[in-house]
Design goal:
This protein is an alpha+beta fold. The chain has 6 helices and 8 strands, in the order ββαββββββααααα. It has a 5-stranded mixed barrel with strand order 1-3-6-7-8. A two-stranded antiparallel sheet has the order 4-5. Helix 2 runs parallel beside helix 6 and helix 4 packs across helix 6. The longest helix is centred in the middle third of the chain and has 14 residues. The chain is globular and about 50 Å long.
Length: 216
Amino acid sequence: MTAAHYRKIDDLPATLAIFPLPGALLFPRWPLPLNIFEPRYLNMIDDAMAGSRLIGMVQAMGGDPQKPDVAEVGCAGRITTYAETDDGRYLITLTGIARFEIEQELDVTTPYRQVRPGWKRFADDLHAVQEIALPSREKLIAALHAYVEANQMQADWSAVEGAPMETLVNALCSGCPFSPIEKQALVEAPTLKARAETLITLLKMDVPGSDAGTMQ
């Protein structure tokens, strides 16, 4: 089953294993490669592969490293590539399906954590972004130019200019060195346009003399 086969929230599971990981962002239709080596998460992948192949990526927000505090919103991804290494690791790719709110963390006997996800708030994630809802490429690229120059970075501008807007926005959200709180704001932005506008604000915040506001 590919992402296109999840047509309504009733197609999504009532319980979901979660993988708390700081800084690793997953968005609908966005691929996230992962190197799995901890025993509890190897167990999680085994169980997911035997079932729905879905797991929830959530940002770890500090606290006990063994059971960190987690953000209230994450994104469920389907395991779309899977390989085992000679030293016992799993190399997987998650493809984002839909975001969810954690309605309740469940009391489980599995070594990994599980939650009851709420899908309703992000039901539109199951549908491709319409052209009318796309953000301004010009505003985003202008903010990126200023950010790259201010931080003495390099960018592949031909790739930036040619990438589809959803791909470009998600790649920048995932790749830029924002704080966990800032990255969570990108995850929770309700639409692609809102995500791009939040991204532009974050890029401008790192440019001296910009007119960007502050993230709360």
